[in-house]
Amino acid sequence: MTPNIFMLFSFTVFIIGSVVMSLIGVKAPLLSLNENQILYLYSTSAQVLAGIYGLTLTGFIFFRNELSREEFDDDTLTDAVERLKSRYFKLLIFITGQTLISLLLSNLVISIESDDNKLLVTLLMNVTQVSYVVNLGVIAYFIFDVIAPKRIERASRDLQKKLSLIWTKRLKVV
Fold first, then answer.
1. Which residue blocks in 74-147 are alpha helix, DSSP H?
2. Which long-range contacts (CB under 8 A, 24 or more apart) does 96-104 make?
3. Is the dihedral of CA 68, 69, 72, 76 positive or negative?
4. Does the N-terminal or the C-terminal CB of the chain have fewer CB atoms within 10 Å?
5. CA-CA distance, 104 to 25, in Å (whole number)?
């Protein structure tokens, strides 16, 4: 799955999940949390997400260095490795944005928890939890994508297919 398609899929899941969970939260809530539970849940969620993001970023740096080392050892892999680096960078930008949004939403829930507008608090709580779950899924996808076996070979084959399609089209034109 290309990064753009995955980002679109994640965004769609976030929107649909937010709407569904917000409707459930307003019409037939599964749980009723008190002030302490809300503060604890959203504070802990933000801390866990920040920790996982930090570990993912640190691990990615090591994998990126390993990719560079493999590229240095075999010049024929340069294009494939550069393509992988570009892919991972796009995904990392997306994860960073999504993590920041989730953290901001968690802080917003904590900030307005005592607000009299319970509908707003309920909606925000549900959207924040959907954001948290989607973010964990996106991070998991990224991790498995980075550590996938034969990732360089697969990227190299994809590049070869793309180049062969270009050459085939050019030969048909001539």
1. 78-112, 118-146
2. 96/53, 98/10, 98/131, 98/134, 98/135, 98/138, 99/49, 99/50, 99/53, 99/135, 101/131, 102/46, 102/49, 102/128, 102/131, 102/132, 102/135, 103/46, 103/49, 103/50
3. negative
4. C
5. 20
Q: Which among 132, 85, 91, 84 has a CA at the least distance from the CA of 108?
A: 132
Rounded distance between C-alpha atoms, residue 69 and residue 49, angstroms? 30
pTM of the model: 0.83
Please write the tens of the pLDDT for every residue from 39-98: 999 999 999 999 999 999 999 998 888 888 877 777 777 777 888 888 899 999 999 999
H/E segment holding residue 24: helix 3-27
Q: Are 97 and 105 in contact (CB under 8 A)?
A: no
The residue type at 69: R
Q: Which residues contact 68 (CB under 8 A, 6 or more apart)?
A: 81
Question: By three-state DSSP, how is residue 114 classified?
Answer: coil
